[in-house]
Description:
Blueprint: E1 13-15, E2 22-27, E3 34-38, E4 41-46, H1 57-69, E5 77-81, H2 87-95, E6 100-105, H3 109-117, E7 125-130, H4 133-138, E8 145-150, H5 165-172, E9 175-187, H6 192-207, E10 214-218, E11 228-234, H7 243-253, E12 258-261, H8 263-269
Helix pairs in contact: 1-7, 5-6
Amino acid sequence: MTTHDFLPGAQRSAQLSFSDQPAWIVKDEVSGGWTLLIGGVEQSHVDLEDPTHLVHEYLHRMATVLDEAWPPGEPLRIAHLGAGALTLARYVQATRPGSAQVVIEIERELPTLVTTALPMPAGTELEIVIGDAREELAAMEGRRFDAIVLDVFSGEESPAHLATKEFYLEALAHLEADGLLLVNVGDDSGQRFLAAQVRELEGAAAEAGLSGVWTLTLASLLTTPADGNMVLIAGGALSSPDVGQWRTAWEKAGPHPGAVLDPTQTAEAFGR
């Protein structure tokens, strides 16, 4: 068996009980690797031979943020709210061996499907918690992370109780003083949900005494209405004197043509 094959006998599909949607893992004939489909819609891509190969542009941007905000190879404590195919968790293990990672996923069957069909890199320290992201994070009272990654939003269909200033405040409270909250916001061409999330996260950052919200995205999404994803980031790390250097690196890393907006530009772009 080569590293890009399934484990013998591993399941390739599951019926998800929370959403009542089918989940499938299928071979990606275009990019190589494997794709997780939920309800027929592509959710995640995994390259078992090279976990640093990130096909989805928003994950590439998130990975670049992590790469710059901490010294190369330094293990991190990261909470992933929403599992998908654990693509970013695989990236972190490949680039920062020894990182302590926890995943909170509401679909009970999904982590088992993913980890049996697409094994995690050797040595991965991964705790899987099944349940609602807000409830389970609240249950981790006193626990702190270097980074929290929120990847559950899909426009107006997103969980309403997670799309609030109050939840963002709760998440920020679980960060170290120099930590980062990274939020992937997928939205349709109207970007109403995205604009609302900018306002909610800005409010939480201000109340927490933080410097504001940064945005990383495809540049065209700022000028031409289209479906797409933007990455919002907030946290104490953004008060670092090195943030200007990080911004240059984020812009250089792409994917291109990309845009990196500081808090002032983010507020201007979304009508604040």
